[in-house]
Design goal:
Layout (H helix, E strand, L loop, with lengths): L11 H8 L3 H9 L7 E2 L5 E2 L2 H16 L3 H9 L7 H12 L7 E4 H8 L5 H9 L3 E3 L4 E4 L1 H10 L6 H37 L3 H42 L6
Antiparallel strand pairs: 1-2, 3-5, 4-5
Helix pairs in contact: 3-5, 5-10, 7-9
Length: 248
Amino acid sequence: MALDTDEPRLTIDELAARAGVTVRTIRFYGTRGLLPPPELGPRRVGHYGPGHLSRLALIEDLQHQGLTLAAIERYVRRLPDDLSAHDLAIHRAVVASWVPDRAEQATLAQLERRAGRPLTEDDLDRLAAMDILEHEGEQTFRVDPGLLGVGLQLLNLPMGLDTILSARAVLLDHARATARELTRLFHSEVWGPYREREPDPEQVETMRTLSAHMQPLVVQALVTAFQRSLNEELRATYGPEDQPHHTP
Protein backbone atom coordinates (compact mmCIF):
# COMPACT_ATOMS: atom_id res chain seq x y z
CA MET A 1 0.00 0.00 0.00
CA ALA A 2 1.95 3.01 -1.26
CA LEU A 3 1.32 6.23 0.60
CA ASP A 4 0.56 9.49 -1.16
CA THR A 5 2.96 12.28 -0.32
CA ASP A 6 0.19 14.38 1.23
CA GLU A 7 -1.08 11.55 3.46
CA PRO A 8 -0.13 11.45 7.14
CA ARG A 9 2.76 9.09 7.72
CA LEU A 10 2.40 7.19 10.97
CA THR A 11 4.85 4.99 12.81
CA ILE A 12 3.51 1.73 14.17
CA ASP A 13 3.26 3.28 17.65
CA GLU A 14 1.30 6.26 16.28
CA LEU A 15 -0.98 3.94 14.29
CA ALA A 16 -1.67 1.86 17.39
CA ALA A 17 -2.55 4.95 19.42
CA ARG A 18 -4.84 6.33 16.69
CA ALA A 19 -6.60 2.99 16.22
CA GLY A 20 -6.91 2.22 19.92
CA VAL A 21 -5.09 -1.11 19.64
CA THR A 22 -1.69 -2.41 20.69
CA VAL A 23 1.44 -2.58 18.54
CA ARG A 24 1.38 -6.33 19.06
CA THR A 25 -2.12 -6.48 17.56
CA ILE A 26 -1.01 -4.55 14.47
CA ARG A 27 1.93 -6.89 13.95
CA PHE A 28 -0.33 -9.91 14.45
CA TYR A 29 -2.80 -8.60 11.87
CA GLY A 30 0.09 -8.02 9.49
CA THR A 31 1.29 -11.61 9.78
CA ARG A 32 -2.27 -12.86 9.15
CA GLY A 33 -2.63 -10.72 6.02
CA LEU A 34 -5.32 -8.48 7.52
CA LEU A 35 -3.17 -5.37 7.01
CA PRO A 36 -1.05 -4.54 3.96
CA PRO A 37 2.64 -4.05 4.76
CA PRO A 38 3.81 -0.54 5.59
CA GLU A 39 5.88 1.58 3.27
CA LEU A 40 9.54 1.37 4.26
CA GLY A 41 11.29 4.69 4.72
CA PRO A 42 14.84 5.63 5.70
CA ARG A 43 16.54 3.09 7.97
CA ARG A 44 13.74 0.69 6.96
CA VAL A 45 11.26 2.30 9.33
CA GLY A 46 7.70 1.33 8.40
CA HIS A 47 5.20 4.11 7.71
CA TYR A 48 1.43 3.71 7.73
CA GLY A 49 -1.37 5.86 6.31
CA PRO A 50 -5.15 6.44 6.48
CA GLY A 51 -5.81 3.20 4.61
CA HIS A 52 -4.24 1.17 7.39
CA LEU A 53 -6.21 3.11 9.99
CA SER A 54 -9.44 2.50 8.07
CA ARG A 55 -8.72 -1.23 7.78
CA LEU A 56 -8.18 -1.46 11.53
CA ALA A 57 -11.51 0.30 12.10
CA LEU A 58 -13.22 -2.12 9.70
CA ILE A 59 -11.70 -5.10 11.53
CA GLU A 60 -12.97 -3.69 14.82
CA ASP A 61 -16.49 -3.32 13.38
CA LEU A 62 -16.42 -6.91 12.15
CA GLN A 63 -15.31 -8.07 15.60
CA HIS A 64 -18.19 -6.15 17.22
CA GLN A 65 -20.50 -7.94 14.81
CA GLY A 66 -19.29 -11.22 16.33
CA LEU A 67 -17.26 -12.60 13.42
CA THR A 68 -14.45 -14.99 14.24
CA LEU A 69 -10.89 -14.19 13.21
CA ALA A 70 -11.13 -16.76 10.41
CA ALA A 71 -14.31 -15.13 9.08
CA ILE A 72 -12.70 -11.68 9.25
CA GLU A 73 -9.71 -13.00 7.34
CA ARG A 74 -11.98 -14.33 4.59
CA TYR A 75 -13.79 -10.98 4.39
CA VAL A 76 -10.61 -8.89 4.31
CA ARG A 77 -8.85 -11.15 1.77
CA ARG A 78 -11.57 -10.27 -0.74
CA LEU A 79 -10.70 -6.56 -0.45
CA PRO A 80 -8.05 -5.22 -2.87
CA ASP A 81 -4.87 -4.02 -1.16
CA ASP A 82 -5.10 -0.61 -2.84
CA LEU A 83 -8.54 0.31 -1.49
CA SER A 84 -8.50 3.92 -0.28
CA ALA A 85 -9.67 5.05 3.14
CA HIS A 86 -12.75 6.43 1.35
CA ASP A 87 -13.57 3.02 -0.17
CA LEU A 88 -13.10 1.31 3.18
CA ALA A 89 -15.49 3.81 4.77
CA ILE A 90 -18.19 2.49 2.42
CA HIS A 91 -17.52 -1.06 3.61
CA ARG A 92 -17.72 0.11 7.22
CA ALA A 93 -21.06 1.81 6.58
CA VAL A 94 -22.50 -1.47 5.35
CA VAL A 95 -20.97 -3.51 8.18
CA ALA A 96 -22.29 -1.01 10.74
CA SER A 97 -25.85 -1.84 9.67
CA TRP A 98 -25.35 -5.33 11.13
CA VAL A 99 -23.99 -4.11 14.46
CA PRO A 100 -26.35 -3.25 17.34
CA ASP A 101 -26.27 0.31 18.66
CA ARG A 102 -23.77 0.58 21.46
CA ALA A 103 -21.88 3.19 23.43
CA GLU A 104 -18.58 3.06 25.26
CA GLN A 105 -16.91 5.17 27.90
CA ALA A 106 -13.72 7.08 27.11
CA THR A 107 -11.57 9.64 28.85
CA LEU A 108 -10.28 12.81 27.23
CA ALA A 109 -6.78 11.31 27.22
CA GLN A 110 -8.04 8.25 25.31
CA LEU A 111 -9.82 10.44 22.76
CA GLU A 112 -6.69 12.51 22.26
CA ARG A 113 -4.61 9.37 21.68
CA ARG A 114 -7.10 8.32 19.01
CA ALA A 115 -7.00 11.79 17.45
CA GLY A 116 -3.21 12.00 17.58
CA ARG A 117 -3.36 15.52 19.03
CA PRO A 118 -4.91 17.54 21.88
CA LEU A 119 -8.64 18.19 21.52
CA THR A 120 -10.01 21.68 22.13
CA GLU A 121 -13.41 22.55 23.54
CA ASP A 122 -14.47 23.41 19.99
CA ASP A 123 -13.41 19.93 18.85
CA LEU A 124 -15.49 18.33 21.60
CA ASP A 125 -18.47 20.54 20.74
CA ARG A 126 -18.24 19.46 17.10
CA LEU A 127 -18.11 15.77 18.06
CA ALA A 128 -21.10 16.28 20.35
CA ALA A 129 -22.98 18.04 17.54
CA MET A 130 -22.44 14.93 15.39
CA ASP A 131 -23.89 12.74 18.20
CA ILE A 132 -20.55 10.97 18.51
CA LEU A 133 -19.99 11.79 22.16
CA GLU A 134 -21.66 13.28 25.18
CA HIS A 135 -20.18 14.47 28.45
CA GLU A 136 -20.47 12.16 31.43
CA GLY A 137 -18.04 14.04 33.67
CA GLU A 138 -15.35 16.66 33.44
CA GLN A 139 -12.93 14.31 31.66
CA THR A 140 -15.22 11.38 30.79
CA PHE A 141 -17.45 10.85 27.78
CA ARG A 142 -19.92 8.37 26.33
CA VAL A 143 -18.83 7.75 22.74
CA ASP A 144 -20.21 5.94 19.70
CA PRO A 145 -17.25 3.73 18.70
CA GLY A 146 -18.62 3.17 15.22
CA LEU A 147 -18.60 6.89 14.42
CA LEU A 148 -15.65 8.04 16.50
CA GLY A 149 -13.03 7.42 13.80
CA VAL A 150 -15.09 9.27 11.19
CA GLY A 151 -15.71 12.17 13.55
CA LEU A 152 -12.03 12.54 14.41
CA GLN A 153 -11.19 12.68 10.72
CA LEU A 154 -13.85 15.35 10.16
CA LEU A 155 -12.22 17.50 12.84
CA ASN A 156 -9.29 18.01 10.46
CA LEU A 157 -11.53 19.49 7.77
CA PRO A 158 -12.18 23.26 7.58
CA MET A 159 -15.81 22.95 8.66
CA GLY A 160 -17.35 25.07 11.39
CA LEU A 161 -19.92 23.90 13.92
CA ASP A 162 -22.78 25.62 12.07
CA THR A 163 -21.87 23.77 8.87
CA ILE A 164 -21.74 20.42 10.68
CA LEU A 165 -25.13 21.04 12.29
CA SER A 166 -26.66 22.04 8.95
CA ALA A 167 -25.24 18.97 7.20
CA ARG A 168 -26.45 16.72 10.01
CA ALA A 169 -29.96 18.20 9.76
CA VAL A 170 -30.05 17.55 6.00
CA LEU A 171 -28.90 13.96 6.42
CA LEU A 172 -31.31 13.21 9.27
CA ASP A 173 -34.30 14.74 7.52
CA HIS A 174 -33.76 12.78 4.32
CA ALA A 175 -32.78 9.59 6.16
CA ARG A 176 -35.98 9.69 8.23
CA ALA A 177 -38.10 10.38 5.16
CA THR A 178 -36.47 7.47 3.30
CA ALA A 179 -36.88 5.13 6.27
CA ARG A 180 -40.52 6.16 6.65
CA GLU A 181 -41.32 5.57 2.98
CA LEU A 182 -39.51 2.23 2.86
CA THR A 183 -41.32 1.08 6.00
CA ARG A 184 -44.65 2.17 4.54
CA LEU A 185 -43.87 0.31 1.29
CA PHE A 186 -42.89 -2.86 3.15
CA HIS A 187 -45.99 -2.68 5.35
CA SER A 188 -48.45 -2.09 2.52
CA GLU A 189 -46.93 -4.34 -0.15
CA VAL A 190 -45.39 -7.19 1.86
CA TRP A 191 -46.42 -7.29 5.52
CA GLY A 192 -50.14 -6.57 5.10
CA PRO A 193 -50.84 -9.04 2.27
CA TYR A 194 -48.73 -11.69 4.03
CA ARG A 195 -50.76 -11.41 7.24
CA GLU A 196 -53.98 -11.69 5.29
CA ARG A 197 -52.78 -14.90 3.66
CA GLU A 198 -50.95 -16.40 6.65
CA PRO A 199 -52.55 -15.65 10.03
CA ASP A 200 -50.43 -18.34 11.72
CA PRO A 201 -48.33 -16.66 14.51
CA GLU A 202 -45.26 -18.68 13.54
CA GLN A 203 -45.51 -17.38 9.99
CA VAL A 204 -45.84 -13.81 11.29
CA GLU A 205 -42.64 -14.28 13.29
CA THR A 206 -40.95 -15.55 10.14
CA MET A 207 -41.91 -12.32 8.39
CA ARG A 208 -40.50 -10.25 11.26
CA THR A 209 -37.22 -12.15 10.93
CA LEU A 210 -37.25 -11.49 7.18
CA SER A 211 -37.64 -7.75 7.74
CA ALA A 212 -34.64 -7.78 10.10
CA HIS A 213 -32.52 -9.67 7.56
CA MET A 214 -33.42 -7.12 4.90
CA GLN A 215 -31.93 -4.25 6.89
CA PRO A 216 -28.26 -4.67 5.83
CA LEU A 217 -29.35 -5.13 2.20
CA VAL A 218 -31.35 -1.89 2.33
CA VAL A 219 -28.45 -0.03 3.94
CA GLN A 220 -26.03 -1.30 1.31
CA ALA A 221 -28.39 -0.14 -1.44
CA LEU A 222 -28.80 3.26 0.21
CA VAL A 223 -25.06 3.75 0.70
CA THR A 224 -24.32 2.79 -2.91
CA ALA A 225 -27.11 4.98 -4.29
CA PHE A 226 -26.02 7.94 -2.17
CA GLN A 227 -22.38 7.55 -3.18
CA ARG A 228 -23.26 7.53 -6.87
CA SER A 229 -25.70 10.44 -6.52
CA LEU A 230 -23.14 12.50 -4.61
CA ASN A 231 -20.49 11.88 -7.25
CA GLU A 232 -22.92 12.97 -9.95
CA GLU A 233 -23.78 16.15 -8.04
CA LEU A 234 -20.11 16.96 -7.48
CA ARG A 235 -19.32 16.47 -11.16
CA ALA A 236 -22.24 18.70 -12.12
CA THR A 237 -21.20 21.39 -9.63
CA TYR A 238 -17.41 21.40 -9.98
CA GLY A 239 -16.74 19.56 -13.23
CA PRO A 240 -14.59 16.44 -13.56
CA GLU A 241 -11.29 18.35 -13.10
CA ASP A 242 -12.28 20.41 -10.04
CA GLN A 243 -14.27 17.69 -8.25
CA PRO A 244 -12.99 17.23 -4.66
CA HIS A 245 -11.16 13.95 -4.10
CA HIS A 246 -12.07 11.19 -1.64
CA THR A 247 -15.50 12.55 -0.85
CA PRO A 248 -17.53 10.16 1.31
